[in-house]
Design a protein that fits this description.
With 203 residues, the protein is mainly alpha-helical. The protein has a single domain, classed as dinb family like domain (Four Helix Bundle (Hemerythrin (Met), subunit A)). The protein has seven helices and three strands. The radius of gyration is 16 Å and the shape is globular. The N terminus is likely disordered. This is TIGR03086 family protein. GO terms for molecular function: metal ion binding. It holds the Pfam family MDMPI_N. It comes from Actinomadura litoris.
Length: 203
């Protein structure tokens, strides 16, 4: 997971974070069903990343979210015990991390310490939901089997995104917003806000 704007911790996502995280994980797992080892070298909507790199990055985010709920903190440097994951097949790392996380946030913990700052657990879960959902979309696009973000999930995440992905936190995590027509649906507007071309062209 990337860092978040600590000022935003005063505006938690109204207790919806854990439920949205569950929905995002379920969506990402469905996208993963279409991934085969032969697809790992394909480009993704994340500029400069192939599918293997994307899966490994998302696996690290899933591990960070599990650490948050287990220990109440997230390290901003790799955990020493995470080393063995490097040799594992990235599809398995992603799937195992997602399955371990399902249900783990059913009851949100207390504040989570991220890099020395105490953040509302709903904020952390909401941030995770945005990241996992958009990367689930990235995975589906790269696998050649596009899966739109479910409209209800996309609408809820779109409400949270301006608070959780601000000008102060976007750099290094998401590309600049992409223009979309006023008639675009919630899923397209969410992807565009997070720097994706809703048409699915690689970054």
């Amino acid at each position: 997971m990337g860092s978040v704007d600590t000022a935003a911790s005063t505006r938690p996502p109204e207790g919806r974070g854990p439920a949205l995280l569950e929905e995002a994980i379920g969506y990402a797992l469905r996208a993963l069903e279409d991934v085969t080892p032969a697809a790992l070298g394909r480009p993704t909507p994340c500029r400069g990343w192939d599918l293997e790199t994307l899966l490994r990055h998302t696996g690290e985010s899933l591990a960070a979210l599990l650490e948050a709920v287990d220990t109440g903190r997230v390290r901003l440097v790799p955990r020493p015990e995470a080393g063995p994951e490097e040799g594992k097949e990235p599809i398995a790392v992603f799937r195992e991390g997602a399955e371990r996380l399902l249900g783990a946030w059913t009851e949100a913990p207390g504040p989570v310490t991220v890099g020395g700052s105490a953040l509302c657990a709903d904020l952390v879960a909401g941030t995770g939901a945005i990241e996992i959902a958009v990367h689930g979309w990235d995975v589906a696009q790269a696998a050649g089997r596009p899966r739109p973000v479910p409209p209800a999930l996309a609408g809820a995440l779109l409400e949270l995104a301006p608070t959780l992905v601000s000008g102060a936190t976007r750099h290094g995590l998401f590309a600049p917003p992409v223009p979309v027509p006023g008639t675009a649906g919630a899923g397209e507007r969410l992807l565009a806000y997070l720097g994706r071309d809703p048409a699915g062209r690689p970054g």
